[in-house]
Specification:
358 residues, six-stranded parallel sheet, five-stranded parallel sheet, 15 helices, globular
Length: 358
């Protein structure tokens, strides 16, 4: 009889996206194991096509399954699905509740170790700061799986981080909206995702505008696609599109879906991103990402799948990193970690990336 594993990860889009490569590795390493991912409904596109033994359950924990009563109802629904193992890949209060309920009912359960002590030392001030590479989210997710009594789980090691596995997600064809946006002129295609959830991870937008200007000057035939979300982001993207109508396309307002954005990213030469979800989305489709880092640092373990550290644009200043998630105010007051990065530094790295594609 086939065994069934439930993997739970809610939280931000980028964190959920980092689970996808591990799910694909596991599905390939143990084809006899049925793997189900439980996350927020909008994350469903991230887990399509990862294997015939992979499925997805969307649960809106902020509304439909809100609070203790909602979580208890969610557990009741999951309890009837016949899972053998439960992997808590999130480690927060909601998943703790679900994990305890599963354990009480006799399931084999394991949870993620976030190693908060290591994070605290990485972001400490002065002599207490310890600058070293911490375990990546991919490694932590694999660690949870290894702590479960899954028969054959040792086979995961042969797949973990293999360099010849191709992109996590691939698209043989794209929607007509994406195809029309790409055009057929054969010019360079660069994506730019200038926004992030927290200020400490956003390169100043006036400097980003200068990056766009430099790219259009140095590569006249370049096509730049802008990715972003809400109202203010949309207005900023549209203003750049109006300034450079022959080179710049505000992609997100037109595509209006993660699936189409992933398809577009898969056809780009390079993406310029912050330490944000878009870095991880580009990584899943095998597109190299030049990422800009300010308050946060790749050492915290959140660099995109198979992305290179030398594609991280960052300054070596003593106060970095001051935050794991970029959600703390700048104690210096000058945001030097971002303001000290010149647009020319970013453009040079992006163009070098393009040259390497030749």
């Amino acid at each position: 009889m086939r065994k069934k594993l439930l993997m739970i990860r809610f939280s931000a889009l980028g964190d959920v996206a980092m689970l996808a490569p591990v799910v694909k590795e596991l599905a390939a390493a143990l084809p006899e194991l049925d793997v189900t991912v439980l996350s927020q409904p909008f994350c469903a596109p991230l887990f399509r096509g990862l294997g015939s033994n992979v499925s997805f359950i969307g649960a809106d924990i902020k509304r439909e399954y809100h609070g203790v009563k909602g979580l208890e109802r969610l557990f009741g629904e999951l309890d009837g699905m016949g899972f053998d193992y439960v992997a808590d890949m999130h480690g927060v209060l909601r998943t703790h509740y679900l994990r305890v309920r599963f354990r009480m009912n006799g399931y084999a359960v394991a949870r993620i170790d976030k190693r908060r002590g290591d994070r605290k030392r990485l972001t400490a001030c002065g002599d207490k700061k310890v600058m070293r590479q911490l375990s990546t989210s991919f490694e932590k997710y694999r660690g949870v799986l290894r702590r479960l009594p899954i028969e054959g789980i040792g086979r995961l090691d042969a797949y973990a981080g293999a360099e010849d596995g191709g992109p996590v997600m691939s698209f043989g064809s794209v929607d007509k909206e994406v195809s029309a946006m790409l055009g057929s002129d054969g010019g360079r295609r660069i994506g730019i995702a200038p926004f992030a959830a927290h200020e400490g991870k956003i390169y100043p937008l006036e400097k980003t505008e200068r990056v766009v200007e430099l790219l259009t000057e140095r590569q006249p035939g370049v096509r730049i696609y802008l990715f972003g979300g809400g109202g203010r982001e949309r207005e900023r993207m549209l203003s750049w599109q109006r300034r450079w109508p022959r080179n710049v396309v505000a992609a997100s307002p037109v595509l209006r879906s993660m699936e189409r954005e992933l398809q577009l990213m898969s056809r780009l030469d390079v993406m310029l991103t912050m330490d944000s979800a878009n870095m991880h989305l580009a990584s899943l489709v095998g597109t190299r990402a030049v990422s800009v880092w300010g308050a946060t640092h790749p050492f915290a373990g959140f660099l995109g799948w198979r992305q290179r550290e030398d594609d991280c644009v960052q300054l070596d200043i003593p106060c970095r990193p001051c935050s794991i998630f970029g959600n703390k105010p700048c104690f210096r007051g000058d945001f030097a970690c971002m303001n000290g990065i010149s647009p020319e530094m970013i453009v040079e790295r992006v163009m070098q990336n393009n040259l390497e594609k030749e």
